[in-house]
Amino acid sequence: MESAKNLNLTRSIGVSNFNIIQMQRLWDNSEIKPAVLQIEVNPTITQNELIDWCREHGVIVMAYSPFGAILGRKQDGPPPRADHPILTNLADKYNKSVPQILLRYLLDRRLVAIPRSTNKERIKQNIDIMDFTLTAEEIEILSSFSKNYRLRTPAKWYSHPYFPFEKKNLTDAEIQYIIEHSKED
């Protein structure tokens, strides 16, 4: 990546799904430092320690899966859901939708939110979040939902020695099952 940057083939270098150990190793062993780290961030996985590291080192954090399991797309995720009173009360207070509250939560944490949608109306709603801000207390309340729950775990890399996420004690057969079924994602 540094060669591509030196040849002016890219303006900057970004990485995704790195943990603090990997970021520090990259930082210590690179001439050109990464400008961006793309990670999953939402109220159920706040990633405070990693985000603090990035801020200390001037790395911008892009937050993917900004809604987590809150909108109910994955039923085994921890609470809250979109109908949680805290979320609906905030939505009512600001005359916004719950997804808009979740996106604003990320912006007010100084993160770059990257929601995914192909629905024209939802894309418009996702952009319509610049006319309000959450209070520090509201951000803290939303952050209290954190359970370190990942909506997306790139299981195809599960057996890699530098797999960036927490590993459960799984048998080889269970790991193989995860890898095979992650191809469906």
From TrEMBL:
Domain NADP-dependent oxidoreductase spans what residues? 9-145
Q: GO molecular function terms here?
A: oxidoreductase activity, acting on the CH-OH group of donors, NAD or NADP as acceptor
Which InterPro entries does the record match to this protein?
AKR (IPR020471), Aldo/ket_reductase_CS (IPR018170), NAD(P)_OxRdtase_dom_sf (IPR036812), NADP_OxRdtase_dom (IPR023210)
Q: Which UniProt keywords apply?
A: NADP, Oxidoreductase
- Gene3D superfamilies membership: NADP-dependent oxidoreductase domain
The entry sums up its family as follows: Belongs to the aldo/keto reductase family.
Cited PANTHER family: 2,5-DIKETO-D-GLUCONIC ACID REDUCTASE, NADP-DEPENDENT OXIDOREDUCTASE DOMAIN-CONTAINING PROTEIN
Q: What protein name does the entry list? A: NADP-dependent oxidoreductase domain-containing protein
Organism for this UniProt entry: Parnassius mnemosyne (clouded apollo)
